[in-house]
Amino acid sequence: MSAFEAATLIAVDVGSVNSRANLFDVVDGGYRLVATGRAPSTAGAPLFDLGEGIRMALDQVQQVTGRRLLDENESLVMPVTTDGAGVDAFASTASAGPNPRTVLVGLMPDVSLESARRLAASSYLDVVDEISLMDPRREEQQIDDLLRARPDIILLVGGTDGGATDSVLRMTDVVALAIGLMPEGTEPRVVFAGNRRLGAAVNERLGGKVPVILTPNIRPSLELEDLGPTRGRLGEVVIEVRSARVAGFDELRQWSGGYFSPSADAMGRVIRYMSRIYGPEKGVLGIDLGASHTTVAAAFGGQLRLAVNTDLGMGSSLRGVLNPEAISQAMRWLPIDIPEPAFRDYLHNKILHPGTIPVEAEELHLEYALARQCIRVALDRARRSWPRLKGSVGPTVMPALEPIVASGATLGRAPRPGFSALAVLDAVQPTGITTLVLDPHNLLASLGVVGAAVPLAAVQVLESGSFANLGTAVSPVGRGRTNRPVLRYLLERDAGGEKIEGQARFGQLIVVPLEAGEQAKLSLRPERSFDVGFGGPGRAGALRVTGGAVGVIIDARGRPLELPRDPGRRREFNQKWLWDIGALS
Amino acid sequence: MALSYLSPIVHVTPLTTIRRERNLSVPGVVAVRVNQKVQASDVMGEAEVGRRHVFLDVGRALGIPERQVAASLARKVGDPVEAGDVLAGPAGFARRTVRAPAGGTIVAVSGGRILFETEGQTAGLRAGFAGTVVSTDGIQHVTLETPGALIQATWGNNRQDYGLTRFVGRGPGDRMQTDQLDINLRGAVLVAGVCENPAPLHQAVELSVRGLILGSMTSELIPVAMRLPYPILLTEGFGRLPMNSPAYALLQSNAGREATLDGRMGSIYESQRPEVIIPLPASPQVGMPEDVVPLKPAVRVRVVRAPHRGAIGQIRQVLPKAVSMPSGILARSATVDLEGIGAATVPLANLEILQ
Which CATH number does the domain housing residue A576 bear? Predict the structure, then answer.
């Protein structure tokens, strides 16, 4: 059966902490998420094999559905048998595995190397060194440093198509000399993404020593950057490197029959697809807060900007927030008084035990303070490559986004919807009117790869309610004194009943109740110096809204959001906002 | 049938077969053979590290065009040379020569230049613990084995050393103080409870201690610990947590014996974990520690997160349904009989198997 004819399919995502299996089937004429299973990932010690964790996750799906998915040899049953066992299609994504040590080699630091950095930042790479024509190091020093770096991948770029040749080949010669000195079996893979006329020459200089992967030029001209094709191929190289250290990738790819992708790439595909549906006036934002990475996927009119932060995450990658300033920033979100040494101890212990979860309320607040900090730093970095949208207010506030989709175990397991909603509002600080969506089953990556196998399934699942609509957030841009009026609102439910109207004052977080699935008309009349996105400050308007798990959230705390300087007052406000949004019972 | 849940394992084992690989950082020469017995201080192999490279522009030095460089070479690629040896020439109008700047090897000739590799320094591979060689590839890797006690830790400062164990303080939760460290502890591996300030760590340097095993220390001391010359291992982590009782008791029962401390921290994709190895006299063959233990009743576990962080107990029951925690989070959990506390419901994610 071809993937396009599949009725039952399963998508597996393997992370550093969790392995997840999501079963989709046709229900009432459309694809729906039927069951999910989650188990600890076995990519790391002691097994270093993806397989056991995947089988445990599939076993959970088996137990929930009563459907046999694995045969007596623990292999996947495919296609569906006459007795209803198995699935018709299998797709998988993975973010698990060590990040390849990577050296970027290019010509100009602010041209080809800059593009290489952006490319590296959109993949699971650890960049350990850069070499350019402007490098102050002598060539022999570059060779010594290349040897010391022990790279898994060398990303060689430079020269526009039809442009520089000699300089690129000279850099290639340096790389070739260094590779010739490496112990046998430790040589890196080389990805050449420079002047396409030099592919054969680069291959000739290197090809005898190492595999050389030729991809389209990431900078075909000075004005044009094209990362997409190389990103896809680079993703495959990352998997090859990981496969050498963690078993199970081959079996996973075999089960997937070609529908296998790095998790970030798959997530990016969904966000890009959504931006084509939602239109060009606003961007679509997806955030995946994982244990070892934080991925930010933003798409504007179908153009994707993908950023994978390998030094930010809620587990081993909390190292990215170990500096004093980041710790201080994270602590600003706490609604309780915790001494900084205790916060730091907590952070370090969480790095040592990345899969643990907060049992007590106090640790829950610590966890979510760190979550906010990871997301904020990841967004700050990602935004540097975002286009400027029409109507953007400025660099200190977010552009218009619709919707914002948040994924990852930390956000997904929040005790109440308001908890994750407030974390997203605090971390992202959206402007204007946007819908907050939570992905509690980590479906984003799965749908990105399912969409390649069965496009209809991805579309139908997206529309089916498998994601949790937290609600519509109204975030006026502007600042004022506390308690100063910001806007007036009026909610009129389609189903009739009492209208809800009121006034939001500066500093308030108001939830206007609207049940999930309920439709209503929301009229907003902002004060003169506040802009909610109806064409300028003070411009009133109305829109149709659908209810969510929290309701309609009016965030009148100002944009940019500035927390009180006094720590005690800040804790009071953080506590109050948690109550106001319904995060605390 | 797949396992239903796989928890991390930490080994605190009084007697097991310990097998560890020791590696030169680069290929060299391994001098030991299979079945050979070694002591901790024995050097099992050597390799040359820190080689550096120098380009020698032969064309420019001799004043000849690039096409004549190959013919001017007095040595070929791969030739080892001494400092001052002629590498190229005499050639050119002035009959100049190019000489080796130091002892080393010609590793490449390219574009009229010699790439010269200077000799590095010799780095030895010490055994680190008394044991028997069970395998080697002859050039870089050696696997050693010994029966002994094994205590795995949670954090280490990436240093390695060995020495005789001595105890400091009154118990596994005792705060380490400078007045507890005296001349009798010189050169030893110290076992203590909790460290909250840097003074005793610096004092230990004065005493040339060979290592420090703690239950915990405050994370503020990490920068200090990373700069110290001796290994520091934490069995519990950061904060003020006493050493777990099985580890403390095991170390006490082996007080005075030689212990090897390996404080290296591997990533989650490496098997490296900070640990203490105490080789013991040969005994009837004992098995190796299990790496995979299903979580089920009677399995001994340790809680690694609040509440009850550090507590040890036995699984009474793995609960069939997820349980709501005080934080509001739903989690697959187990009922655990914790020593000194009683029965508690603990998320599976917050348990480590103690073996």
Answer: 3.30.420.40
Q: Which residues contact A6 (CB under 8 A, 6 or more apart)?
A: A79, A87, A88, A89, A453, A454, A457
Q: Are B110 and A47 within 8 A, CB to CB?
A: no
Claim to verify: residue A136 and residue A268 sit in the same structural domain? no
A300 and A426 within one domain: yes
Mean pLDDT computed over A294-323: 94
pTM above 0.90, yes or no: yes
Query: Is the Cβ of B331 closer than 8 Å to some Cβ of chain A?
Result: yes
B-contacting residues of A 42-101, CB under 8 Å?
42-48, 52-53, 55-56, 58-59, 70, 74, 97-98
According to the model, what pLDDT value does residue B241 have? 96
Say what the pLDDT of residue A464 is: 85
What is the number of helices (H) and of strands (E) in chain A? 16, 22
B266 chain-A contacts, CB cut-off 8 A: 45
The reported pLDDT for the residue numbered B6 is 86
Q: With an 8 Å Cβ cutoff, are B305 and A341 in contact?
A: no
Measured between CB atoms, does B65 come within 8 Å of chain A? no
| A214 and A312 fall within a common domain | no
Q: Tell whether B52 lies on the interface with A, counting CB pairs under 8 A.
A: yes
Q: Do A86 and A194 share a domain, yes or no? A: no
Q: Is residue A74 part of a domain?
A: yes
With an 8 Å Cβ cutoff, are B53 and A58 in contact? no
Same domain, A450 and A326: yes
Give the nearest partner residue to B304 out of A345, A347, A356, using CB atoms.
Answer: A356
Q: Structural domains in chain B? A: 9-23+145-279 (3.50.30.10), 53-118 (2.40.50), 300-354 (2.30.30)
ipTM score of complex: 0.94
A365 and A499 assigned to the same domain: yes
Residues of A in contact with B118 (CB under 8 A): none
A334 with A222, same domain: the answer is no
Closest CA in chain B for residue A61? B4
Question: Which pLDDT does position A278 carry in this prediction?
Answer: 85
CA distance to partner chain A, nearest, from residue B93 (Å): 29
In a domain, A211, yes or no: yes
- Pairing verdict, β B9-10 and A485-493: unpaired
DSSP assignment, residue B31? -
Among A42, A352, A360, the residue with its CB nearest the CB of B327 is: A360
**A186 interfaces chain B, CB cutoff of 8 Å:** no
Please state the separation of Cα B230 from the chain's center in Å: 12
Tell me how far apart the 2 most distant CA atoms of chain B are, in Å: 93
C-beta atoms of B306 and A52 within 8 A = no
Hey, how many other C-beta atoms are within 10 angstroms of the C-beta on B52? 16
Confidence band of B95 (pLDDT split at 50, 70, 90) = confident
A322 Cβ under 8 Å from any chain B Cβ: no
Residue B2 pLDDT = 47
CATH number at residue A146: 3.40.50.360
Domain boundary among A243, A276, A310: A243
- Write out A295-328 in H/E/C secondary structure: EEEEEECCEEEEEEECCCCCCHHHHHHCCHHHHH
Buried b / exposed e along B117-155 (16+ C-beta atoms within 10 A): bbbeeebebbbbbbbbbeebeeebbbbbbbbbbbbbbbb
User: Are A359 and B53 within 8 A, CB to CB?
Assistant: no
Do the domain assignments include residue A585? no
Q: Where are the beta strands (DSSP E) in A476-580?
A: 485-493, 500-505, 509-512, 519-526, 541-546, 551-555
Predicted pLDDT at A133: 94
Task: Compute the nearest-CA separation of B52 from chain A (Å).
Answer: 6
A494 in any annotated domain:
yes
Write out the residue range of the structural domain in which residue A219 sits.
101-243
pLDDT band for position A307 (50/70/90)?
Answer: very high
Residue A305 shares a structural domain with residue A224: no
- In this prediction, residues A513-526 reach a mean pLDDT of 95
